[in-house]
Design a protein that fits this description.
The protein is of the alpha+beta class and 750 residues long. It is built from 26 helices and 13 strands. The relative contact order is 0.15. InterPro entries: Embryo-specific_ATS3, NCS2, PLAT/LH2_dom_sf.
Length: 750
C-alpha cells in the first residue's frame, strides 16, 4: 500500500555554505526576450539512453542487437585477413580458416572482458596495430625456400604464434602488477579527450577511402544510414516503425545494399572491370563460402608448434602496448555510451591484464593478429542508444557459433568491404564525438587546456599519417636501424594515432602548470577512489550476486567485512588482482550463472549512519519540478504493525538537485504496515545521479525500515539503500556517497 506525495512547498532554511562564497555573476539572458539561457552542467553519465549497462531490452530485441554487433565487428576481421593472408602465402581456404580462428578468439575474449574484465559492453576484435610486426615476420620468411606457398603460410603463422605468446606477458605484467593503474592516475580529462577522439578519427583510412573503391555499393549505405537518423518526423506517423528503423538501421541498410550488389553481380555489371574493382564490388569474389568448411572447431596449435625468435617477439611488443592504449580509449568511450561513470584506473589495469591473457590464448590457437577493443562496436552503442552488457555477451555467442559452422559465417563474411566501410564512417565519427564530451569536466576556457588538446589531436593524426605514407612509398618505416625489432617497436608506436596523442597529452598535461580543478581532476579523482557506483558498474559478477541475494545473514556479514578490509587496504575494490582473476576464472568456467546475472538493483553501501547537521536545501522556485521519482520502502517485520511516527525523506545529487518529501506516513491509508512494501511517486528536480538519501523519524513507535529503492526517471534500474535497524528519533539517518569535492558546492556531512 502506498500514497502519492507531490512536490513539497514549505519554506526551507538555507544551507550553510561549506566553501567561501563566490562572486555571483548575472545569469545571461536571451537578447530581447529576458529569458534565462539554459545551462548544461557536466554529466558524469550520459542521459537519454534507452538501455544502460545493466538494463536489458526484450529477448527478441536483444538477439537482434547482438546479431547487429556481430555484423559490425566482422568487417575488421575480413579486412585484416584479406590483407595479411595472401602476403603470408595462404590460399582461399587458409583465409577462411584464419577468419574462423580470429572470430572464435574474438568471441572468447569478448566474454572474458564482459564478465571479469572491464565489465563494459565492449567487443574484442582483431587489431590493425599488429600489421607492422606481422609484416616484418612475413618479410623474414619470404627470403626462405619452401616447397609451396601453403608451407610458407604455415611457418609464418607459427612464427606469429610464438611472438604473440611471449609478448602477451607484457600486458599481463603491466595489468596485474597495477602498472597501468599507476600510469592512468596521472591522466585527467585533458589527456583522455585527444586519446578517445583519435581512437575514432585515426581510423579514417578504413572509412571513406574504402567506400571509394566501390562507390555504387558503399555510398548508398552511407546515405541510407545518415538519412534514417534524420527522419524524426516519422516518429509521430508510425512510432513502432521509427523505433525499429532507429535501433536496427545497420541491419536494414546492409541487407538492402547487399542485395543490390548481388543483383549487379548477377547482371554482369562487373564483367569487364579491373580485377581490383571486382574484388571490392562483387559478392562472389571472396571465395569464402566455397572454401570454408561446414564445421571446423579451432583448437590449440592447429598450425603446428609455435616458432620463437627474439626479433619477432620484441617487434611484437610494440604492437601489444599500442593495442592496450587503443583499448583504454575505447573503454572510456564505451563507458560513456553505456551510461556508466568513467572507468577507474584499477578497472583499466584489470582489463589490460586480461587482454594479455586473451593474446596468450590467441597465440595458442593460432590467430594471425592480437586483439583490441572494437571501436566500431563502441560506436554502435551510441547509434542504437542501447548499452546493454548482455547484448554484447550474446553477440560473443554469435561469433563462436559462426566460427565453428564455417559456411554460415562465410556467408556474412562475403559482404563487400565498402559496405562495412560506409558503416564505419558513422560509427568512428560517433566515438570521436564522445571523446570531445570529456572536455566538459575540465576548464574549457583555459588556453592551456585548449593548447594541449589541440596539439595532441593534430600530432595524433599527422605523425601516424607521415609514418604510414613513408612506409607505403619506401617499403619500411622512417625508423630504420640495423636492429629490426627496434624499428618495429618505434614504427608501431608512432603509426598509432591514440599512442601519439597519449604521449603528447600526458607529457604536456603533467608539465604545464595548472590548478587541480582546471585539469579536471576534481571530477575524475573520485572514480579512482571510493565512488559507490564503481561497484555497481565494474564489480565482479559474484559480488553483484551476493549483494543482491544475501541482504542478511552470514554471507552478507562476510561481504561487509570484505568491503571494510578493502577500504583499509585502499585497493578500491580490486584486492589481489591476480588471485581474483584466477579464482573468478575457475568459478566462471564451472557455472553459467554469471552469463545471465540478474540486472536488479545493487546496494550502494550496507552501512547507514547519522547526519545530525544535514539541512534541507532552500527551494529554487525558478527551476520547477521536472521529474517524477518512484520510491519503494519496505518496512521490517520487526517493526510495529502500524506506525504513528512521522516519516520524512530527502535524496539528491551533488549539484543542489534535492528531492524532499516532508511526510510519507499516513495512518488512514495504513502506510508502513509491518512486512509490507509501500510505493510513492515523488516530484522533484531532475538530477544527475543520486548520491545521498536520508530518512527522518519523529515519534515514539520506533519504526524500522528494511530498505529503500529509488527509481530515477527513464532508468529501469533502482538504487537501493539497506537499513534493517530502527531509525534514531529526530535525526536524519542514511547514506551519503557524493564525491568529496561536492562539499564545495553545498553537500554537507560527506
Amino acid at each position: 500500500m502506498g500514497e502519492e506525495t507531490g512536490a513539497p512547498t514549505p519554506q526551507r532554511p538555507p544551507v550553510a555554505p561549506s566553501a567561501p562564497p563566490s562572486v555571483q555573476m548575472p545569469m545571461p539572458t536571451a537578447a530581447g526576450f529576458g529569458d534565462v539561457l539554459p545551462t548544461h552542467p557536466p554529466l558524469e553519465q550520459l542521459p537519454n539512453l534507452q538501455f544502460c549497462l545493466h538494463s536489458n531490452p526484450s529477448w527478441p530485441e536483444m538477439f537482434a542487437l547482438a546479431f547487429q554487433h556481430y555484423i559490425v565487428m566482422l568487417g575488421s576481421i575480413v579486412m585484416l585477413a584479406s590483407f595479411l593472408v595472401p602476403l603470408m602465402g595462404g590460399n582461399h581456404g587458409d583465409k577462411a580458416r584464419a577468419i574462423q580462428t580470429l572470430l572464435f578468439m574474438s568471441g572468447i575474449n569478448t566474454l572474458l572482458q564482459t564478465l571479469i574484465g572491464t565489465r563494459l559492453p565492449t567487443v574484442m576484435n582483431s587489431s590493425f596495430a599488429f600489421i607492422i610486426p606481422v609484416m616484418s615476420i612475413i618479410r623474414d620468411f619470404n627470403s626462405r625456400a619452401y616447397n609451396d606457398e601453403h608451407e610458407r603460410f604455415v611457418h609464418t603463422t607459427r612464427a606469429i604464434q610464438g611472438a604473440l605468446i611471449i609478448s602477451s606477458f607484457v600486458n599481463i605484467f603491466i595489468g596485474y602488477t597495477r602498472a597501468w593503474d599507476k600510469l592512468f592516475r596521472f591522466c585527467g580529462p585533458v589527456t583522455i579527450v585527444p586519446v578517445v577522439c583519435v581512437v575514432g578519427l585515426g581510423l579514417f583510412e578504413r572509412g571513406f577511402p574504402q567506400v571509394g573503391k566501390c562507390v555504387e555499393v558503399g555510398l548508398p549505405v552511407l546515405i541510407l544510414l545518415t538519412h534514417e537518423h534524420t527522419l524524426q518526423h516519422t516518429k509521430h506517423v508510425n512510432e513502432r516503425a521509427y523505433f525499429v528503423l532507429e535501433r536496427f538501421s545497420i541491419i536494414f541498410c546492409v541487407k538492402i545494399v547487399w542485395a543490390f550488389a548481388a543483383i549487379l553481380t548477377a547482371a554482369g555489371a562487373y564483367n569487364n572491370v579491373p580485377e581490383k574493382t571486382k574484388l571490392h564490388c562483387r559478392t562472389d569474389r571472396s571465395y569464402l563460402i566455397s572454401s570454408a568448411p561446414w564445421i571446423k572447431i579451432p583448437y590449440p596449435f592447429q598450425w603446428g608448434g609455435p616458432i620463437f625468435a627474439a626479433s619477432h617477439v620484441f617487434g611484437m611488443m610494440g604492437a601489444v602496448l599500442v593495442s592496450a592504449l587503443e583499448s583504454t580509449g575505447a573503454h572510456y568511450a564505451a563507458a560513456r555510451l553505456a551510461g556508466a561513470t568513467p572507468p577507474p584506473a584499477y578497472v583499466l589495469s584489470r582489463s589490460i591484464g586480461l587482454q594479455g591473457v586473451g593474446m596468450l590464448l590467441e597465440g595458442i590457437f593460432g590467430a594471425i593478429a592480437g586483439s583490441t577493443a572494437s571501436v566500431e562496436n563502441v560506436g554502435l552503442l551510441g547509434l542504437t542508444r542501447v548499452g546493454s552488457r548482455r547484448a554484447v555477451q550474446i553477440s560473443a555467442g554469435f561469433m563462436i557459433f559462426f566460427s565453428i559452422f564455417g559456411k554460415f559465417g562465410a556467408l556474412f563474411a562475403s559482404i563487400p568491404l565498402p559496405i562495412f566501410a560506409a558503416v564505419y564512417c558513422i560509427l568512428f565519427g560517433l566515438v570521436a564525438a564522445v571523446g570531445v564530451s570529456f572536455l566538459q569536466f575540465a576548464n574549457n576556457n583555459s588556453l592551456r587546456n585548449l593548447y594541449i588538446v589541440g596539439l595532441s589531436l593534430f600530432l595524433g593524426i599527422s605523425v601516424p599519417q607521415y609514418f604510414n605514407e613513408f612506409t607505403a612509398s619506401a617499403g619500411h618505416g622512417p625508423a630504420k636501424t640495423n636492429a629490426g625489432w627496434f624499428n618495429d617497436i618505434l614504427n608501431s608506436i608512432f603509426s598509432s594515432a591514440p599512442t601519439v596523442a597519449f604521449i603528447v597529452g600526458i607529457v604536456l598535461d603533467n608539465t604545464l602548470e595548472a590548478s587541480f580543478s582546471d585539469r579536471g581532476f576534481l571530477w575524475f579523482s573520485p572514480f579512482n577512489k571510493d565512488d559507490p557506483r564503481n561497484e555497481e558498474f565494474y564489480g565482479f559478477p559474484i559480488r553483484v550476486w551476493v549483494h543482491e541475494h544475501t541482504r542478511s545473514g552470514f554471507l552478507h556479514r562476510l561481504s561487509v567485512k570484505g568491503v571494510e578490509r578493502k577500504e583499509k587496504k585502499k585497493e578500491a575494490g580490486m584486492g589481489n588482482p591476480l588471485s581474483s582473476f584466477l579464482l573468478l576464472l575457475l568459478v566462471l568456467l564451472s557455472s553459467p550463472v554469471f552469463f545471465l546475472t540478474s540486472c536488479g538493483s545493487v546496494p550502494v553501501d550496507p552501512r547507514p549512519r547519522a547526519f545530525p547537521s544535514f539541512k534541507i536545501q532552500e527551494i529554487k522556485e525558478e527551476i520547477g519540478w521536472g521529474c517524477s521519482y518512484t520510491v519503494k520502502i519496505k518496512t521490517s517485520c520487526s517493526s510495529r504493525r502500524f506506525t504513528t511516527d512521522r516519516i520524512s525523506l530527502a535524496f539528491g545529487d551533488a549539484y543542489h538537485n534535492e528531492v524532499y518529501a516532508p511526510r510519507l506516513d499516513d495512518p488512514s491509508s495504513a502506510a508502513f504496515e509491518r512486512c509490507s512494501t509501500d510505493t510513492f511517486k515523488i516530484q522533484g528536480p531532475c538530477g544527475y545521479g543520486i548520491c545521498y538519501l536520508y530518512l527522518r523519524r519523529d515519534g515514539w513507535d520506533g519504526w524500522t525500515p528494511e530498505w529503500v529503492k529509488v527509481y530515477e526517471p527513464h532508468v529501469s534500474r533502482a538504487i537501493s539503500f539497506y537499513y534493517g535497524a530502527p531509525l534514531p528519533n529526530g535525526i536524519w539517518y542514511g547514506f551519503n556517497h557524493c564525491p568529496r569535492s561536492a562539499s564545495s558546492i553545498g553537500i554537507t556531512d560527506i
